[in-house]
Specification:
With 253 residues, the chain is an alpha+beta fold. The strands form two sheets. The protein has a five-stranded mixed sheet, with helices on one face. It has a five-stranded mixed sheet with strand order 6-10-9-8-7, covered by helices on one side. β3 and β4 form a beta hairpin. It is globular. 32% of the residues are buried.
């Protein structure tokens, strides 16, 4: 594991200690926070971590990846209740200078395919295919945004596709049936803009914004690519709070 990956895992683990030691990984003179529930800079980060009752938090990072100056992690959290999260950190000169994240309450049990939001492969392979795999995911999201849905099945590994979204079943058939059921319940799933695509080998994370139900939301979608097709998917969806509730002015993205 690279030094930056180790640092991110260690930084997230400090949450269990109320943030003790967290600031050693962060540039104190430049820290841009995109979690809208946390105040600006290192003072905002320290204040948020200090709110945790001693010994109340649990952190288990399941996957961590590196793409240039970015490290992104997929983590099982328990602070003020169980949550699944993606965190993205940007580095400059060996220190973290920017942070984005997305959190979702952990559902009970497994999804219709018997999967949780975290289980499945963690090993990074196919490092030589990183850019190719990122391009595949970018095309897939851009096709969804543009409404070019006829070609979408070609991006996926058919009914071998494994789904970790808590509401959906495996396979393209499960995805289609699940989205139809959500639409019938008034739970619209709409992607409007792709902000970031990061990847390492066979894993690619796409950060998008859109609408889930009736709420402006952030979509973090992690894909595992195998033989040029999307073979597996994990995600976290978080509603974006209205501006009057945001504790910093940096925006979600």
């Amino acid at each position: 594991m690279s030094r930056r990956k180790q640092d991110v895992v260690s930084l997230l683990k400090t949450i269990e200690r109320g943030g003790e030691g967290a600031l050693q990984f962060v540039n104190p003179d430049k820290y841009i926070q995109h979690n809208l529930a946390i105040g600006e800079g290192v003072s905002g980060l320290a204040a948020a971590l200090a709110q945790l009752p001693p010994g109340s938090a649990r952190v288990n990072t399941v996957r961590v990846f590196e793409d240039g100056d970015y490290v992104f992690a997929h983590t099982d959290y328990d602070f003020f209740g169980p949550k699944i999260g993606f965190d993205i950190f940007r580095y400059e000169d060996g220190r973290i200078v920017e942070h984005w994240d997305n959190l979702q309450e952990t559902p009970k049990g497994s999804n219709p395919g018997g999967h949780t939001m975290l289980d499945g492969p963690t090993e990074v392979v196919d490092l030589d295919k990183t850019e190719e795999n990122k391009a595949l995911v970018r095309r897939q999201i851009e096709d969804i945004i543009a409404g070019r849905l006829d070609g979408l099945p070609g991006h996926f590994d058919g009914n071998a596709y494994i789904q970790h979204n808590p509401l959906l079943a495996d396979g393209l058939s499960g995805l289609g049936a699940g989205l139809k059921t959500l639409a019938e319940k008034g739970m619209r799933v709409k992607y409007d803009r792709l902000h970031m695509v990061l990847g390492e080998g066979n894993f690619v994370l796409a950060v998008s914004e859109g609408i889930f139900g009736s709420a402006p939301s952030a979509y973090y979608d992690l894909y595992r690519i195998e033989n040029g097709k999307i073979a597996e998917h994990w995600d976290v969806i978080e509603a974006i709070p209205p501006k009057e509730e945001q504790k910093n002015g940096n925006g979600k993205f």
